[in-house]
Amino acid sequence: MVEITTSIEIDAPADKVWDLISDIDSEPKFWKGTKEVHNISKEGNVVNREIVIAFRDQRCIQEVTLYPKEKIIAQFTKGIIDGSKTVSLKSQDNKSLIDVVWNIRLAGLMGMFTGMLKKHIKDGTDLALQSIKKELEG
């Protein structure tokens, strides 16, 4: 497993930030590594979905759990990626902090290339957070 962490401070209240990041259907707008999202089922705060990722247009199944105004955990349950992405939200003085932690590896024989993918995922995550910041701060 490879752990990738990054964060960003946004000059916006947590409620406004949560409204944007919890709209998981619009993830491809900010997360360029996610090309498409297809929801399979939703029960309470848990969404099962198929995503198409930019890496060779691979399809992955995720179970996404939303913990309102706190965090979003996307667990990869099937596909080339094994592991999870956690997006956490903290509030302080009318500002918000988004932390993202990936704990992943490539599945099967592709596992040997996990390390090569680390920089790509870190850069993509940083870009997504910058795009979210720009959207919220105007």
Nutshell version of this structure?
The protein is an alpha+beta fold and 138 residues long. The chain is built from three helices and seven strands. Helix content is 26%, strand content 49%.
Q: Mind telling me the CATH class?
A: Alpha Beta
CATH topology: Alpha-D-Glucose-1,6-Bisphosphate, Chain A, domain 4
Report the radius of gyration as a whole number of Å: 15 Å
Number of strands: 7
DSSP strand content: over 45%
Number of domains: 1
Task: Count every helix, treating DSSP H or I runs of 4 or more residues as helices.
Answer: 3
Overall description:
This protein has 138 residues and is an alpha+beta fold. The protein has a single domain (2-137), classed as Alpha-D-Glucose-1,6-Bisphosphate, Chain A, domain 4 (2-Layer Sandwich). The longest helix has 24 residues, at 114-137. The chain has a seven-stranded antiparallel β-sheet with strand order 1-7-6-5-4-3-2. 26% of the residues lie in helices and 49% in strands. The chain is globular, with a radius of gyration of 15 Å.
